[in-house]
Amino acid sequence: MPRSVKVHPDHQPALVAALKRNGFATQSDLAAHLEVALSTVSNFFRGIKVSVSKFEQICEALGLDKRTMILPSGSSSAPILDALSKSDFFAYDDAWVGRESVVNDLTGRIAESCRILLISGISGIGKTALGERLVVELEQGWHRHFYVRVNFDNQEQATDFAGVAAMVLERCGQKVTPDERSDVETLLARLVSALQKQPVLLLVDSLENILTGNEEEGWSKFQDKHFVRFFHQVLASESFASRLILTTQELPGQIQEIGSRYRTVWHNQLLSGLSADEQYALFEKTGFAMPPGSAEQSYLLRIGQAYEGHPLALRIIAGEMGSAPFFGNVVAYWNKFGNEIEQVEQAIAAAQAGQVAGADDRWQLDRFTRTLRRNVRNRLEQTFQRLQQDARYAYILLCEGSVYRCAVPEDWWLSHLDYWNQSEAEKDAALDALRDRFLVEETINNHHCFIRQHNLIRSISLDHLKRLDDFKGPFP
Q: Is residue 273 a contact partner of residue 294, using CB atoms and an 8 Å limit?
């Protein structure tokens, strides 16, 4: 569903008069009054889509009827925002850019034989938005009534299989009796049968929140074993009309194990950051279309590169640049915070010059503004906290590995666990735990596996490295 609207061309000629009538000499005055980006106000006046909330703000300030401004002159007023309040989406919106090849590939897989699609990657990389984008692509071939969403990031959401199964069945139009709610076997059979027979698009968010593990038995296992049985039956069924799209920060090992026997009906899509072109397209979509070759364009490109195309971080930065006190002034934003980007650039240049280690680097990509701390660091900190609790040697390895500014041989990383008296098998298990959580990235160089951290992950890992002395000594 759309999350933005625009002024109909019929009403654009009257906007300047409304501006003057309400005491605003220029669009800049209106932007300052509302504390929104000048680019947002400019888009409103030019008939370009803006978010619903900003559209309402501007209309109110100009004394305009928000319900008629998007309709042709003479049309009857309609409750245009009612549908938006029923939106199924909270990540995919009009600022979506790129990923065309991924979307085309995945929609093709789902339309053909892929029953379970896992979209995996670090927090904020765009997993949920991609899942929602796929729903939009697939919507035409699936009855809307049977699009169902389960969000394990919602604390009100049931996390036991029985509770989830009952909810999905009810949203598919089936009644569940009080007795059945406590009968897991019946719910399992009914849910699998329902999904086999009728086409349901089931989008499951934040699967990592129902996973658990330990040092001895491994990580990323389902807390409720009935989820394992459910996914097994989905993959093993002779026919299956529904499709499941799962987003996760941790790769469920049990699905991998089951899926190895059913390779054609499941797929894991590891999501990386936006490309350089997509990064700049995102800035353009959020109101920062700068003249080619300008200082502003250069600063935006450098920000995108430092964050390796991390969509959440880039959208937050765009929002900050568009709000008080910058109001779209990219140069002013760079003058205040550009030194943080320059530190990353300098470290990367030093690594290319052979200075691979940099334990004293002071990166703050995750926290140099309050908004970044609240929306980026806090989300990633949850991943670090789970790792520290469930896989402590993996956590130590992640912290120790932050000394490297670039990809280095796997053995270099593993050597950091020598101090902790870890066996080779235990070292490998710790590194596997980081792989399962997508906290390290692998590259092949001269036929050897090299390991690195995403710049944003390294920024947090370096901060945790300073506190690693608290872990010295035996664990309780």
A: no
DSSP line for 254-285: HHHHHHTT-GGGEEEEE--PPPHHHHHHHHHH
Say if pTM beats, i.e. exceeds, 0.85. no
Could you tell me if 298 and 334 are in contact, meaning their C-beta atoms sit under 8 angstroms apart?
A: no
The number of helix segments (H) and strand segments (E) in the chain equals 22, 12
Please give the torsion angle defined by the CA atoms of residues 22, 24, 29 and 35, in that order, rounded to the nearest 10 degrees: 0
37-58: per-residue pLDDT in tens? 888 898 899 888 887 778 888 9
| pLDDT tens for each residue of 304-348 | 999 999 999 999 999 999 888 998 999 999 999 999 999 999 999
Helix axes 311-322, 330-352, angle to 10 degrees: 150
Structure tokens at 474: 């035996």
CA dist 19 and 314 (Å) reads: 32
Cα distance between residue 58 and residue 56, in whole Å = 6
**Are 281 and 309 spatial neighbours (Cβ–Cβ below 8 Å)?**
no
